[in-house]
Amino acid sequence: MMESSSQTQEPGGFLTSILPSPPSSTVTSPSTPRSLLPLPRTRPLKSGSLKESNFITYVEQKLLAVSRRYENRFSAALGEEENPDVEGRGYKGIGEEMQDLDAVIDIVWISGTPALQITFLLAIALTVTVSLTSFPFAPRPTFQLLRKLDLAFASLLRGSDIETGAPLPGSETGKSRLSTTEMVRMRGIVERSRVAVVEVAGKDGSLIHERTVAQVQTDTEDDFNMTTDDGTDDREDESSPRRWEMDIARVYEKTIVELGLALDTTSPLNNVWT
To answer: pLDDT for 200-250, tens place per residue?
Structure first.
């Protein structure tokens, strides 16, 4: 398996070296809001190093596995898979895909390497946008992943953690490490994502109708994460008729603000909802 080969290429193991366990200070209590993003490395991976090469290979393999499972989604829907436990089986719902991508986002963020974070997170965001229209709408896992991407993008654009203000590894000056080309690409993906969310949420009727669709998603989707940004349980909020409308309006909201500031222009994204 990919993980095993990567782990043996460096003393102590690849994952152990690149993905350290969060320090005890990051453990949250009921009174402490939980951040969606994990604690990154204190220093970026050295460019051209074996660690960086191993990391790139590892993440690319993970994203390839997601792509294969997405392409096999039709077999899963038709019940044609002989062994559902085999790696690469098709996704039965978007919640399963969001769970896999969520784990990859954590790995990428922990790397603390802006160049790799930008490249891989843009690729993941595009994957999410494409996948949204391929499955029944599942609000909870979809919005949670989009919130995590929003925090990551906004932090990279600012050059510091959007929640704590601490400089990001590799951006000690507190300035964005994104090129104008990367910002323009990010803006395009954000625009497409916001439109896609509106389209899939409105299929076959209102969001309340779609909520019944979400209820029959797999247990993986239901258990993906039941908490909001402030660490409170999210289940009771689903009964609110306006619950998901608010989440739709907030898709990539922090990223939109930071893009507008970084590009020094009024973002056309604000006109999507008018």
So the answer is: 988 755 453 444 434 434 444 444 554 454 444 454 455 444 678 889 999
Token pair for 167? 């400089």
118-169 residue pLDDT tens: 999 999 999 999 999 999 999 999 999 999 999 999 999 999 999 888 889 8
pTM above 0.85, yes or no: no
- Angstrom CA distances, 130 to 70, 194, 258, stand at 10, 12, 24
Integer Cα distance of 194 and 249 in angstroms: 8
Closest CA to 94 of 69, 125, 61: 69
Tokens of 93: 């719902």
The two tokens of residue 171 are 């951006």
Segments of the chain assigned E as strands: none
Could you tell me if 14 and 58 are in contact, meaning their C-beta atoms sit under 8 angstroms apart?
yes
Reference 101, options 141, 47, 51; nearest CA is 141
Q: Do residues 126 and 142 make contact, with C-beta atoms less than 8 angstroms apart? A: no
Beta bridge partners of 227: 233
> From residue 230, how far is each of 28, 35, 163 by CA, in Å?
11, 8, 12
| SS3 assignment, position 36 | coil
Q: What angle do CA 13, 16, 21 make, to 5 degrees?
A: 170
Pairwise CA distance, residues 107 & 58, whole Å? 10
